[in-house]
Q: What sequence folds into this?
């Protein structure tokens, strides 16, 4: 061995003692089918055991916080889309609610419930992606292709709300850009009628599947104490047994009106995370149903509320509908003022958080009275919990490390901001 | 658990060294001296009554106009048992931006501090691995400091006046 390295004609430069070492260095990523996003792990493996892993992140850093300092409030919504793009509407709504908190705008109940419908659908879509991808990484592709049809149906509903699917740029400060259409309610009812059977079948395929359980139980575990110390939030924290959910702890958008459970796990392994997400999908379906009932009740009691889709006091920030801009003086003035940036936000310091698809998505907004934030920081849940990844997988098998990664639901867009 | 109770408890312990008490939008906020950030957080963590054992967020802010205390580090802590948050701020001069690292107290502070170092150049003393995290290693400036023009400075339609601060 040593002869080889010392041979004068040998031009390949190897790291010192790399021929002597007994372990293998493995580059998992940055673009690897098993990482589901652009991030790298440099692993030191002994056979199939992971001895050490060093994550490298930042491959798709797009300087959102810097860009946000030069954008009026309504233009920052598009930046939030690109954080966790699997559940973009939650980010959009979270951002709008942050501004509403700064401005002291109180949204009507109907708007809150409309937001809840959209946010819970986004959560279902997010969890479907994560859970079906865990299944793919354990070798079950069928479930993935099956539930993705229903993610597609959710995207069709988003399309009906705002015209786009993945990066939605949905809603405005104060509410929505337009009312929910009758077609939307139809699509929603169709989804609620057909999805539970599919979800049940997906559950039947995996929840008590011996092969899947053997594969997932005990893989990539983390204790509740360590998870809290690492700043875990969302399903990953709840899988360890801590029932912290922003929707309940600090309710926003009238979540206090809804009746739902917070599913928790016990040991925080891949299986617990899978099951927590699975149960949360059922809770979300129930929340969407409740929200629809509540909206119907409001419309029955107050028929004039049918057309309420934004808070009237947000008119300085809510872009008016285009046909109004062309026909009404008032709307034209607001449109002009908003687009030309003649509207300043009051100075203030706000922290607002929502329960995103994978944890507490926080917005720390510092306004100095200008048209743009003077500082905006996103508390991105997966940036914070992904740093526990080495601790979770070291000592385990390489194949467990792969499913631990997919069960953490690390979204590169959110990780790198 | 109320903001007043937390404030009284902290004043009892640290006296007048904690200043600028306020609670914007109900979130108790105060300023701690830069060399005391860890002491305050350790006390908030250990105290059986206060129990602020969850680090929600850690970030930096640059105030170019505040001479001698241009850089700020903002901590958001959460007491999950009583469900109450608070915000701690420390200020350091950009000439010597030294702040004690909270990594021993919260493992989650590791990357958050690296991010804050990466973008603001705040030197977290005691951090095990204070290197850049999102930007390239070769970068020789701290991009989130308000020292750089975002757009072409010759463009009149993108100057400060257009953004409400002329």
A:
């Amino acid at each position: 061995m040593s002869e080889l390295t010392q041979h004068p004609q040998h031009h390949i430069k190897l790291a010192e003692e790399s021929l002597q070492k007994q372990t293998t260095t493995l580059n998992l990523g940055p673009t690897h089918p098993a990482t589901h996003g652009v991030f790298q792990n440099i692993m030191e493996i002994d056979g199939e055991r992971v001895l050490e892993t060093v994550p490298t992140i930042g491959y798709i850093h797009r300087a959102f916080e810097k860009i946000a300092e030069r954008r009026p409030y309504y233009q920052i919504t598009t930046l939030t889309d690109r954080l966790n793009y699997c559940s973009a509407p939650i980010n959009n709504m979270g951002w709008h609610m942050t501004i509403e908190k700064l401005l002291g705008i109180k949204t009507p109940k109907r708007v809150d419930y409309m937001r809840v419908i959209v946010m819970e659908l986004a959560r279902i879509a997010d969890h479907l992606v994560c859970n079906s991808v865990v299944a793919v990484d354990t070798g079950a592709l069928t479930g993935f292709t099956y539930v993705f049809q229903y993610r597609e149906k959710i995207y069709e509903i988003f399309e009906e709300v705002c015209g786009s699917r993945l990066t939605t740029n949905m809603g405005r400060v104060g509410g929505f850009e337009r009312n929910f259409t009758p077609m939307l309610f139809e699509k929603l009812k169709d989804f609620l009628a057909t999805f539970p059977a599919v979800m049940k079948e997906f559950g039947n395929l995996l929840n008590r599947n011996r092969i899947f359980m053997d594969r997932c139980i005990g893989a990539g575990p983390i204790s509740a104490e360590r998870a809290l110390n690492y700043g875990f939030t969302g399903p990953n924290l709840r899988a360890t047994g801590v029932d912290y959910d922003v929707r309940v702890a600090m309710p926003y958008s009238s979540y206090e009106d809804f009746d739902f459970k917070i599913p928790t796990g016990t040991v925080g392994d891949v299986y617990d995370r899978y099951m927590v997400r699975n149960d949360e999908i059922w809770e979300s379906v129930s929340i969407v149903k409740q929200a629809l009932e509540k909206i119907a009740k409001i419309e029955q009691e107050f028929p004039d509320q049918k057309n309420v889709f934004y808070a009237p006091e947000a008119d300085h920030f809510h872009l008016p509908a285009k046909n109004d801009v062309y026909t009404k003086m008032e709307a034209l003035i607001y449109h002009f003022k908003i687009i030309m940036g003649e509207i300043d936000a009051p100075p203030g310091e706000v922290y607002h958080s929502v329960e995103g698809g994978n944890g507490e998505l926080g917005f720390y907004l510092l306004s100095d009275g200008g048209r743009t934030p003077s500082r905006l920081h996103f508390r991105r849940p997966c940036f914070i919990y992904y740093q526990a990844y080495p601790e979770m997988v070291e000592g385990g098998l390489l194949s467990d490390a792969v499913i631990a990664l997919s069960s953490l639901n690390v979204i590169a867009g959110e990780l790198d901001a | 658990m109320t903001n007043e109770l937390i404030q009284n408890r902290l004043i009892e312990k640290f006296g007048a060294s904690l200043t600028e008490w306020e609670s914007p939008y109900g979130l108790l906020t105060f300023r701690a001296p830069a060399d005391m950030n860890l002491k305050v957080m350790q006390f908030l963590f250990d105290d059986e009554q206060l129990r602020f054992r969850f680090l929600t967020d850690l970030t930096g802010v640059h105030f170019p106009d505040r001479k001698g205390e241009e850089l700020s580090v903002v901590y958001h802590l959460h007491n999950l048992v009583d469900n109450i948050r608070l915000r701690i701020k420390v200020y350091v001069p950009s000439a010597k931006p030294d702040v004690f690292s909270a990594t021993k107290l919260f493992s989650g502070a590791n990357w958050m501090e690296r991010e804050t170092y990466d973008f603001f150049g705040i030197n977290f003393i005691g951090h095990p691995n204070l290197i850049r995290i999102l930007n390239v290693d070769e970068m020789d400036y701290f991009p989130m400091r308000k020292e750089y023009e975002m757009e072409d400075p010759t463009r009149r339609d993108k100057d400060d006046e257009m953004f409400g601060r002329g």
User: Anything to note?
Assistant: The domain at 64-416 of chain A is CATH 1.10.645.10 (Cytochrome-c3 Hydrogenase; chain B).
